[in-house]
Model the fold of this input.
Amino acid sequence: MIAAVALITTIVACGPATPKTGEELLLACREFEKTMAGQVIENRERQMAGFAACIGAIAGIEAVSPNAGCPPEDRPPEQAVEVVMNYLKANPAQLHRHPSAFVGDALREAWPCPK
Done:
C-alpha cells in the first residue's frame, strides 16, 4: 500500500504543470506547436511537458465545459489548440485569467452550436 501511494505521488509530482493563466497556456501551446511541426529543442523534457500541459488543459476543459461550443467530431485535437491560441492572441486581456475562464469561449466562438 505504501509503495502504491509513493508511486502515485511520484507520477503526479513529475507530471507537467497545469497552466494557471492564459499566458502560461500560450507558452505551453508554443511547445505543442514546435512538437507538431517536428522541431526538437535542446530541452526535450520541457518541450514534451509543454505539449502535454497544452493539449491536456484544453481537452480537459473542453470535456467538462457545458459551453464549449459544438466542434466537429472528426476534427484533430490540434485544431482546438490553434483555436485557443488564436483567441488568446486576439484577446490579450484574457492572458491573466485561468484557462477555464476562456477556453470554452474560444471554442464556442469558433464552433457555435446550431440554434
